Each structure stands twice: as structure tokens, then as C-alpha cells.
């Protein structure tokens, strides 16, 4: 792809809106979380979402081992969650230090987020530099009223 076409495609791809979520997973006494911006509803029946995770992220081993993940919806004032999760966490780091949380079999619920969806993995596909997980919704709840944060990127080739 020549540079002019890549520039145009990047700008157009960046206009695909997405929400921002804190994706969590737990297995065998370990838990972690990450900022996930590529989340979309994929099915009504059964209710299913798709989530893209950059290959090599520590959360992948927990998702693969447990067969579950949990999505916490970030509200339209995302600064605190972006600051907390934006730097990323290593496999042994306490990703939830300072947050009010609740453990579930699917992952960690962050009480200050708008809502959560607990998911059972029903499919996975490699998508270049990301893995795409399909998660069938097995639980969830709204924690508080508010609007979700919607993310638009200036360039679809980078976060």
C-alpha cells in the first residue's frame, strides 16, 4: 500500500467508533486487567461480544487457561481508568491496587465502572498482531447511571 493510500485508509479506519473497557481475567489465584478499546457486540442470540487483544499481553494466558473474561464499561469521564490501566501491567503486578473490586469466576468487577459483562470464551481467531476472542455473555449488571466513553482515533493504524 503506497503512503498516500495508507494515510487515507488510516484516517478512515480511525473513524470506526469503539467503547473503552477494562478487560479482566482470573485463573488459579492470579488476576489482571487491561484497557480494551476494540470491543463490539457480535450476536443477539446468544448474546456475544468480540474483543481484540494485542498478542503477547499477560491477560491472554489467563483467558486461555480459564476460558473466561470480564468487561467493565468505562464512563464518559475516563481519566482515572486511563491513568490506572494505560501503562499496562506485568503478569505479577497487582492491577487492581487502590480500586474497589469484586472477584467473580469470569474476572474482576470494578465497582466504579458503569457496568460489567461476564463472558465465556466460545471462539478465538488470530488477526495479525491481535487475537480476537468471542465471548458469550453469561452475566452482567449496570452499576450506575451514565454514558459510556466512545473512542475515535485520528489514525486507524495506532492506538
Q: Number of helical segments?
A: 3
How many structural domains can be distinguished in the coordinates? 1
Secondary-structure element series: HEEEEEHEHEEEEE
Global shape: globular
CATH domain topology: Pnp Oxidase, Chain A
Q: Span between N and C termini? A: 20 Å
Average pLDDT, rounded to a whole number, is 94
Q: What structural class results from the helix and strand content?
A: alpha+beta
Write the CATH homologous superfamily: Electron Transport, Fmn-binding Protein, Chain A
Report the sheet-strand fraction: 35-45%
* Main β-sheet description: 7 strands, antiparallel
DSSP helix fraction: 10-25%
CATH class category: Mainly Beta
Uncertain segments are none
Rg, alpha carbons? 16 Å
Query: Main sheet: which strands, in order across?
Result: 3-2-6-9-10-5-4
Could you say what the CATH architecture is?
A: Roll
State the total count of DSSP E strands.
Answer: 11
Quick overview:
16% of the residues lie in helices and 43% in strands.
What topology does this entry show?
Elements: H1 3-13, E1 18-19, E2 21-27, E3 30-36, E4 39-43, E5 48-54, H2 59-66, E6 68-73, H3 79-85, E7 101-103, E8 108-110, E9 115-127, E10 130-142, E11 150-151
Antiparallel strand pairs: 1-11, 2-3, 2-6, 4-5, 5-10, 6-9, 7-8, 9-10
